[in-house]
Write a structure and sequence with these properties.
The chain contains 12 helices and 8 strands. The chain is an alpha/beta fold. The protein has a single domain, classed as Alpha-Beta Barrel (TIM Barrel), CATH 3.20.20. An 8-stranded parallel sheet has the order 1-8-7-6-5-4-3-2. The longest helix is centred in the last third of the chain and has 18 residues. It starts with a helix and ends with a helix.
């Protein structure tokens, strides 16, 4: 991919985090889901690491290899014209040097941004020490800038989602980490697991940088999040799991020798989907 064009996409994605509308991203997991989002008019595509992992036969949680994840990211980035930001979990490495190598390969894939989280395993003992995580974020910033494509970094902490540590101090610890990530060069700050409108509003005020919320049942609507000042809302693996739920419903109907009605409820017509995938990028 042309470096100049890729850098322009990165800058476009960066600007999308500063309004006037919330950047809504129902995450893709393959080329066709990304193409559907682009056809609907989404200005950028975000991937879901969990959804990609599920589709390739892995559980979530950095069980998929860096190579396999980047193969999917590359396919998506070359299937659409809009900017692509990839969920790269905790970077598939433990040291800043390993994260720098992941950054090089991500730029080579054609993506222009990434999610970068601060846990490496299944429990709070895998929470990366704050100083080390800051060094990793700086490695992403410096490495991508040197390659001519300053990646849009969406730095994530899982203090609420895991959850990690005492409930009484989660807000303060989340703010401490996300401010440090902001100062290290992150463009957007991601606090999955937060749905309480009061906490979301306090985070927007405390962080002084674009905030990403993971939407789920019980979260405020996109319009309400936008009014609160949230810059970005993403679905994680929810969209993929909704699609899998529709497939499961079809399969259950067939198993029961029932009707074919479920095949027609939300189906994209074959000619339309085939034409969509036949479109060549200029």
């Amino acid at each position: 991919m042309n470096i100049k064009a890729q850098a322009e996409k990165a800058e476009k994605l960066r600007k999308l985090h500063h309004g006037p509308r919330i950047l809504a991203l129902p995450n893709a997991w393959d080329a066709v889901s990304a193409r559907i989002l682009e056809e609907l008019g989404y200005p950028a595509i975000a991937t879901s690491s969990a959804a990609v992992a599920f589709s390739l036969g892995y559980p979530d949680g950095q069980r998929i290899s860096r190579r396999e994840m980047l193969e999917v990211v590359t396919r998506i980035a070359h299937a659409v014209k809009v900017p692509v930001t990839a969920d790269m979990e905790s970077g598939y490495g433990l040291s800043p040097e390993e994260i720098a190598e992941t950054t090089k390969q991500l730029v080579a894939s054609g993506a222009v941004g990434l999610n970068f989280e601060d846990i490496t395993g299944d429990d709070e003992s895998s929470h990366v020490e704050l100083g080390l995580q800051v060094k990793k974020i700086r490695a992403i910033r410096d490495t991508s800038a040197a390659l001519g494509v300053p990646l849009v970094i969406n730095a994530r902490t899982d203090v609420y989602l895991m959850p990690i540590g005492p409930a009484a101090t989660r807000f303060e610890r989340t703010v401490e980490r996300l401010r440090a990530y902001r100062d290290a060069g992150a463009d957007c700050l991601f606090a999955p697991g937060v749905c309480d409108p009061e906490i979301i509003a306090k985070l927007v005020t405390a962080l002084g940088a674009p905030l990403n919320i993971l939407v789920s049942q019980g979260c405020p609507s996109l319009d309400d999040l936008e009014k609160m000042g949230v810059a970005r809302a993403s679905a994680g693996s929810s969209a993929m799991r909704a699609a899998m739920g529709a497939f499961q419903r079809v399969a259950k109907d067939w198993l029961a020798h029932g009707s074919y009605d479920s095949l027609q409820q939300v189906t994209i017509p074959y000619p339309k989907l085939n034409l969509m995938m036949a479109r060549k990028l200029s």
